[in-house]
Amino acid sequence: MKRRDFAAVLTAGVATPTLLGAAPAHAADRSATGLPQHMSAVLTAELADRDAAKALAPLLYDVGFDWRPETAPPADCDFILAFGFGNRPPAGGGDPVKVRYEPGPVNEELADTVARVRARRNVPVYAQWEIARFLVSKYGMSDVTSIEPLIAPDGTITYLSTDGVAAQVAEARKRVPGGAGTACVIGFRDHHKRCVQTTRDRGLKAYAPRGFSMPHTYDPESGQAWTRRRDLYLVNDMLAQWSALRAKLMAEAFPNG
Question: How does pLDDT run across 114-128, given as a tens digit for each residue?
């Protein structure tokens, strides 16, 4: 298959509905379109290596063409874990290294989503601080643990990564009587899959809440440049997915270093 033919398959068959936010079929149904097989065939021809192509094709498919996490009913969860997305520069100005950013409109939408899920399943909430602020101020919500940035003695602020948030929650859940339980993960639409996977990588059971849509409108005024525009964010998220995947594959192939 020529490269332009392969590109046509991606555009017509799968890529457009998924990336534009339409409601695509289940991942298994998408696989039935033959895209993974096309990818493997093209890679085999390009690499002249069937085994390498067979190993790479499902990884490329997972990172680039499957953007939805596994779901479970909210009734199955023991706590809600909400990851922030973007922010706004400090309203009063000042040194952004030492003056906390504003939560911004996207995190308010994420807080609204948490509230909808919480109305269905009244369980503890662990929320990145940008979301937690709205849960308390807008909804007066109780039993909310705010995951805060790290502040050094000199006042320097270090904001947590997706993994940093998941790590803090995983540590907190170790102290819960009866076990850590299952997380109902809330996250921005294009960040959601990685939120669930990162939570699992930290040793927690985690799912997206079935039947709930996630916020998906980008904020062009976000203080994080990579969260202002969808095409740029998707590249950023794929880079993060590849980095995590690389670490896993290396550890599996060479556990002793």
Answer: 999 999 999 999 999
pLDDT, average across residues 198-204:
98
Whether residues 23 and 89 share a domain: the answer is no
> What CATH number should be reported for the domain holding residue 208?
3.40.50.620
The mean pLDDT of 33-44, rounded to a whole number, is 92
Global pTM value: 0.87
Instruction: Tell whether 38 and 149 lie within a shared domain.
Output: no
Q: Closest Cα to residue 21, out of 238, 245, 230?
A: 230
Contact between residue 76 and residue 181 where contact means Cβ atoms under 8 Å apart: no
Indicate whether 254 belongs to any domain. Answer: no
Average pLDDT over residues 132-160: 97
Q: Which domain holds residue 9?
A: 3-65
